[in-house]
Amino acid sequence: MHKPGQLDRLTAGHDLVVIDCPPRHGEIQRSALMVSDVAVLPCGPSAADAWALATSIELVTEAQTVRPSLLACVAITRKQGHTAIGKGARDALEASGLPVLRAELGYRVAFQEALGAGLGVTAYAPHDAAAVELRAMFDELLAIGGTRGKESTARHATKATRR
After folding, report:
1. Pick from 94, 88, 85, 99: which is nearest to 38 by CA?
2. pTM value?
3. Over the Cα atoms of the chain, what is R_g?
4. What local confidence, expressed as pLDDT, does residue 133 receive?
5. If DSSP codes are grouped into helix, strand and coil, which group holds residue 102?
6. Bridge partner list, 39
């Protein structure tokens, strides 16, 4: 991301590129935010998770002053819906000031099993709740601007309706 033209060479021929950053590593996150169209900040459902998110939100806000077109949102992850923490996660995260995706990722064993098998969850267990949730999140991100160009968006939208 730091060398001029490097990211352009790596991303040529791809509609979507995901840059996964380690949490709370400001310089790496800053670099990614300077080349991203959409920043997705994953956050667990607990108050401690929301507190840890504050640093990333500050970086996004700082990046948006330089790049006003940068979109950002929070994705709820590891949610256990039947718990008090899980039920209150959305309200707590909406107070962050960033939009919270409607799609949420639950705390699902299939995510860990897929990782152990060296596969993505949609390939490992395509009908599992984890895969269903992940596809819903992907579709929502496409809808808010996660593609390069309108042709790409239309192609992905067509694929999504065929599922």
Report:
1. 99
2. 0.78
3. 16
4. 96
5. coil
6. 72
Is position 1 within any domain? no
Cβ contacts of 56 within 8 Å, gap of 6 or more: 23, 24, 29, 41
| Nearest partner of 32 among 10, 8, 1, 53, judged by Cα | 1
Could you give the 3-state DSSP secondary structure of residue 124? Answer: helix
CATH code where residue 43 lies? 3.40.50.300
Q: Minimal CA–CA distance to 57: which of 40, 69, 44?
A: 40
Q: Given the structure tokens 């152990």, which residue do they identify?
A: 116
Residue 136 structural domain: 6-162
Structure tokens at 48: 């401690």
N- to C-terminal Cα distance for the chain?
34
Task: Read off the pLDDT of residues 81-129 as tens digits, 9 standing for 90 and up.
Answer: 777 777 777 887 888 888 999 999 999 999 999 999 999 999 999 999 9
Count up the domains in the chain and report the number.
1
